[in-house]
Every structure is written in C-alpha cells, then in structure tokens.
Amino acid sequence: MTRLSAITPSDRAHLGNHLGAVRHWARDGHPGDLYFVSDLHAMTVSYNPARLRATTRELLAVLVASGIAPDRLFVQSDLIRELGALTWLLECACAFGEASRMTQFKQKSDGQAMVRLSLLTYPVLMAADILLLGADEVPVGADQRQHVELARDLARRFNTTYGEVFAIPRAVMPRTAARVRDLSDPTRKMSKSAQDSTGTVFVLDDPDLVRRKIRKAKTDALGRVEHDPAGQPAVSNLLEILAACRGTDPRTEAAGFSEYGPLKEAVAEAVVEELRPIRTRALELLSDPAELDAIRKAGADRAADRAAHRLSSALRLAGVG
Ligand code: TYM
C-alpha cells in the first residue's frame, strides 16, 4: 500500500500544515509512503524564482525535521519530465468543465487580473503526481479532497479507455486538526497565502513571535470558553489547536478554562513546545547544505525509479512513446 501527499512551497509551512498534515505523515508511516515538496504547484500564481528555490529547500528541511524518514521524501520538480509527460496524457482525458468546477480554482482565480492557465490545470498535475507513483491513499485536508476525487475519475477513465495502468487512489482525512483556522479571521483556514500574516503561525517562527501571534488571536464576544465551532469559531479554533498539540479532545480542554487569557497562554506554550524540536533540527539542516542536498538527490533517484515503468506503460497504451 502506498500513501502519498505533498506540501506546496507557496510560502513557508504553517501550523495548519503541521497539525493537519505533516505531523500525521511522520507518525502514521507505512514502508512505501512518499511525501514531496510540490514546487511546480507554486508556479500557478505570480512568484519569485529565488524565493521559490529557498522555500522549497526550507520545506524539505521542515519535513525531515518533523520526523518523516528521508528515504520517503523528494522534490516534485526533480521529476518534471515524467510529470510533464503524464500531465499531458491526463489533460487529454480531462474535460474542461471538470477542471473549471474545482472550488479552489474559483477561489484562487477570483479577482486576479491574469489567471494563469496552469491554475486551471493544476489539479491535473496533482492527479499526475498521485497516479505516476501509484498511490493508493492520499492523506489531505478538507481543502484538497475534490482534487483527489478528480485524480480518481481520471485514473478510472484512462484505465477503461486505454487499458489498466493506474491504481485508483482515495483521499484519507486526518483524524484531528483537519482544518486549523486563521487566528485573526477564524472564518478562513490558516493559509500560507493570507494577506496578513498575523493570523498565521509559521513552523519556523521564533518562539516569542509565536507567543505574540497567539496572544493577539481574535476571540468571540461571549466571554465563555466552550467548544462550539458554529457559535464560537475563534475560541473553538484555539481549543482545537491546544487539543491537537496535547493529544486530547477540545471539549475536555474547554472545561479547564473560564477566561480567554489563560487559554491563550496555554495554547501559546503548547504550540511553542510542539514546534521547538522541529525548528531546532530544521535550522541545523539548513545550515548544512551537503546533508540536505544528499537527501534530495537520493529522493529524486528513488522516485524516478518508481515512476519509470508506469509512465512508459501509460504512454504506450495511449498510442505514443
Ligand atoms: P498545501 O500546501 O496547500 O497544504 C499541504 C497540506 O496541509 C493541509 N492544510 C491544512 N490542514 C489543516 N488546516 C489548515 N489550515 C491547512 N492548510 C493546509 C492541506 O490539506 C494539505 O494536506 N495541492 C496540495 C499539494 C499537493 C498534493 C499532491 C497533495 C500537490 N500534489 C498530490 C496530495 C497529493 C497543496 O497545495 O497542499
């Protein structure tokens, strides 16, 4: 059984990525799992090449520091030739209407002066990621589920039209922290691309900055501490973060607090402790280029080996290659 998932270096990794994804990848390890930094996906909106390179490296360091075995990691662009080829085959199996229905496309393209075509076809590249490496399970948060559904549909369609080559993947959701919300605006998920970063805790933020951001977090006007995501979204978000860090339940945590101040202090300390070892190890890796370069090179070779047979079968079945 192969599990595969990824994180996009559109900006630095944040607490939502950590609690909702990376932490589970590190803990629920299966022998065949693969995780990668999806740098090609960061190119679907305006970006800075030097910064993309630096953020990709930083994310690779964060994944290693989070406890994912280095032999399960790679960087997406190291497979750009294979992925480019498969994306084309899958674009030829995907309807325009199917791609334009994606919720994330509608959200991300809304109000943009120039919408890159790659923003529309990005879920097809994501399908290529998933299908190229034969993933059976794709752990993702709620925001990415629809894209995994598209990968399933494309795999089935390709298999029935041209011949059996792809495993049919399914999305699996993390049990806890599937959606960490922005600290300043709990109606939105915590996101790398938020305009204002005061509501986003980054994994490599200095501990004092983490404390400051959490102390400034929005609260609800009711003055009570209850886990009630609809009625008290801000406080419920803080309780969910606390429970995820402590491995408890948000309702149980709520019973321990009657005021917002102590709740925020507890959340701040829990988050600082959760991130401390990751920050230390990631900074160490970032200061030693040789170790990280070796991890990246070995990951690229392994992933390319795993992709080769499936890609040549798919090309042959499609009547090319
Ligand atoms: P990305 O980089 O947006 O997010 C990486 C992972 O973090 C989860 N996540 C969150 N979980 C909880 N709360 C949040 N606020 C939060 N924000 C993000 C996401 O659900 C995701 O699991 N397109 C993907 C990366 C990708 C991929 C793939 C994933 C590329 N190819 C193939 C699976 C399989 C993305 O941009 O994730």
TrEMBL record:
Q: Which Gene3D superfamilies match?
A: HUPs (3.40.50.620), Tyrosyl-Transfer RNA Synthetase (1.10.240.10)
The alphabetical list of record keywords is: Aminoacyl-tRNA synthetase, ATP-binding, Ligase, Nucleotide-binding, Protein biosynthesis
Enzyme class, UniProt record, top EC level: ligase
Q: Which GO terms describe its molecular function?
A: ATP binding; tryptophan-tRNA ligase activity
What the entry lists under Pfam families is as follows:
tRNA-synt_1b (PF00579)
Q: Which domain of life is it from?
A: Bacteria
* Entry protein name: Tryptophan--tRNA ligase
Would you kindly state one Gene Ontology biological process term found in this protein's UniProt entry? tryptophanyl-tRNA aminoacylation
Q: Which InterPro entries match?
A: aa-tRNA-synth_Ic, Rossmann-like_a/b/a_fold, Trp-tRNA-ligase, Trp-tRNA_synthetase
Protein's organism: Actinokineospora spheciospongiae
